[in-house]
Design goal:
Elements: H1 2-19, E1 24-26, H2 37-41, E2 47-49, E3 54-56, E4 76-78, H3 88-95, H4 117-120
Antiparallel strand pairs: 1-4, 2-3
This protein binds iron/sulfur cluster (2 copies).
């Protein structure tokens, strides 16, 4: 019986890891602002710069939460707390890294001259709205 329980728990843990690689997420308020305050706080240099916003590499983020409180426009959320209107940004932070992968450090990569399609399609975001 114990063996069966262990196997069930192991299956659940594996399923959780593989289905949910995201940790912290950057959402729409960052678009066209990019003041980069969060970059200074990240201990593993996993916040990458796109053309119009920054993106968190989900495999590199260690889930420390240091970036969240320094964002002046509350653009950073733990994955379970992303507001409904910005729920697409959870996938956007993952999909931005298609073709980029896990470079192991944003500073050596620098500006990545692209954005996720949902960001690229946005009209210019007015800074006074933030
Ligand atoms: S601190 Fe907020 S607004 Fe500034 S770059 Fe980071 S996520 Fe974007
Ligand atoms: S939660 Fe921590 S590791 Fe993840 S992006 Fe923010 S500062 Fe970096």
């Amino acid at each position: 019986m114990k063996q069966v329980i262990r196997e069930i728990l192991g299956t659940v843990a594996f399923a959780t890891r593989t289905e949910d690689p995201v940790t912290y997420v950057i959402a729409q308020p960052c678009v066209d602002l990019k003041d980069k305050a969060c970059i200074e706080e990240c201990p593993v240099d996993c916040i990458y710069e796109g053309q119009r916003m920054l993106y968190i590499q989900p495999d590199e983020c260690v889930d420390c939460g240091a970036c969240e409180p320094v964002c002046p426009v509350e653009a950073i959320y733990y994955e379970d707390d992303v507001p409904e209107q910005w729920s697409a940004y959870t996938a956007a932070n993952v999909e931005f890294f298609d073709g980029i992968g896990s470079p192991g450090g944003a500073s050596k990569v620098g500006l990545v001259p692209k954005d996720h399609p949902i960001v690229a399609a946005l009209p210019p975001q007015q800074s006074e709205e933030h």
